[in-house]
Amino acid sequence: MSWIADLYAELTGWLFEHLLQPLLYAIGAMDYAEDAYAWLDFALFGLLGIAVVVLVCRPLEAWRPVEPVTDRRAIRTDMLYTVLSRLGLLPLLAFVLLSSAQAAWEGWLTEAGLLPPTLEELVPALRDHPLLAFACYVVILDFAEYWRHRAQHGFRWWWALHAIHHAQRQMTFWTDDRNHVLDDVIAAVWFGAIALLIGVPPGQFPLIALVLRFAESLSHANVRLDYGRVGERLLVSPRFHRMHHAPVSAGQHGKNFAVLLPVWDWVFGTADWKRGEFLPTGTPEEPEVLATGGWWRQQLVGLRRMAGALAGR
Amino acid sequence: MRRAPFALLLGLAGLLPTAARADLVYVLNSADASISVIESSTRQEVRRIPVLREPHHLILSPDRTELMIGDSAGNEMIYVDPTSAEVTRREKFSNPYHMELSPDGRLLVVTSLRRDQVDIYDAATRTLQARLRVPDKPSHLAYTPDSRIAFVTLQGARGLMAIDLATAKPLWTTEVGPQPAGVTWHNGKLLVGIMGADTVAVVNPADGKVERTIQAGRGAHTVFASPDRKTLYVNSRVDSRITVLDGETLEPKASWPLPGGPDCIAFDPQGRLWVTLRWIARVAVVDPATGAAETFPVGRSPHGIYVAPRAEPLPPLTISETVPPPAEVTPAAAEAAPPAQQPAVFRRLWSR
């Protein structure tokens, strides 16, 4: 394994020394060198994430598709969403901005004589079990994602944005990133804030994001796949999440909100376990442009509808 | 037998290879939440000490029996016995980034880079005596030899601040250049690495005025004095090199390329430089006579470094990396292989 570590260190070192650091020096931002170096992990993991998802999900979709591909244009729109989202660096921006906010907040706290704890300090056993600590962070963040998702369906203004994600009738693994930009910003701020609140080590952040995003992409795949009677209750499957994208699950009637662990739907009574049901997806009651319009049109209509919802129309 | 007197002569002249040393080199892997303990003769990692978040700098305790290692993001001070690499205790501590004991050993001043605070502690008890709110990013610090004044670079504010340690009040704050990083007291002057430029600023400690600048490569970071203080070494992050200065005249004598972003420097008993290379997860061992360097891998973003003299190799661990070595060492464990290297981000998980 040492050659992988060396190779990775060399690659990130080269990229930082030859591309990022000269840029930081030129714009007078050398005091951000360590932050930029940490970001490299994040960016590389983003690219790796897309590669892994394509390598795993594409063969699965070819193996047992739920439905034939009839609208390639709709998939291309989702691919554009993916590229913009993952190279748009929104979660990173949120994390960096929130780090500054956290610094100010912690400064204030320490002046008041308090030191913010980390999860490992609250549960000392986690100190010696890093994998367990990692799992705890994933579970907490997944729980937070469940409630964000509930809110996306529960608030009318938020559903006006989130409906873009649900309008896709040709759902594939690319659909995961089909979100309004504003919806992405809110999601990134939410995720980043929770991560900082519970003290996620910055080094683990990219890996946690990688795990959650892989699960999300796989759950959107056009593949006739469920994880069996027990497995369906342990991990969100493509079957489980397809139910969430069915017209019966639109808006406030949502089912199966979980991102990684279906246990939250189980506990809070929003689960639908009907195995063997692979329903068509989409939101027939929403404007057609949300399903088949281009990226710009969808962004514009999403904003307009959100404004309408906020104004009570 | 005829060779014996000759060998004795050579030995007395210091020309025979001396017995191999087994110094312990402590490397703080700031992005791996761990401390690598390296044996200097083999360059093998003999211990990996997990910490909470981000270890950056380390010093010897006032009685010089313990290493004090600051975990800035983890709000913790870790105490390690430098001879055995055992963690002796941990203390809750506010954001310890850079820290130094005052020359008289009475005070411990700590900069909190990300909280814009400078804390003054009683060194023996670590009782907070004063906390100063300062401009953006207080980075490194130095003292006057009489321990009356501390100087702190303000990385985000182009500044250098002098703090009266008797009153815990700033004496002056001046502009010294873009993104100042390290500050070193040397022969009555302050030497400040100007990371946003290619110079070291020579500053008058009385009023903070920059008297002259010395070329040292882009991204000049910190000045380190050799143990005899006759030579100064300046690391430069962007041009990635070490500039050697004459300790008396401050004139550059040599420039050694050192790819990887050289950062902290420690000296071993043989006078060699052990340099952390931040961006390539390695440490360089540099020959002070020639500048020739060899490197070996450590954890990600290695920052602070310290060489603890030791003659005998550290006994291998028997149970796990994270458990202090027991009194008895089994022969089987003595043959155990050194810890395997893993990709940084995974190692980060295992090693925390």
TrEMBL record, chain B:
- What start and end residues bound the annotated signal peptide? 1-22
Q: Where is the YNCE-like beta-propeller domain?
A: 19-308
Q: Sorted alphabetically, which InterPro entries does this protein's record hold?
A: Host-pathogen_enzymatic-act, N2O_reductase_N, WD40/YVTN_repeat-like_dom_sf, YNCE-like_beta-prop
Q: Which UniProt keywords apply?
A: Signal
Recorded hits in Pfam families, A to Z, give:
YNCE (PF21783)
Under what name is this protein listed?
YncE family protein
Biological classification of the source: Bacteria, Pseudomonadati, Pseudomonadota, Alphaproteobacteria, Acetobacterales
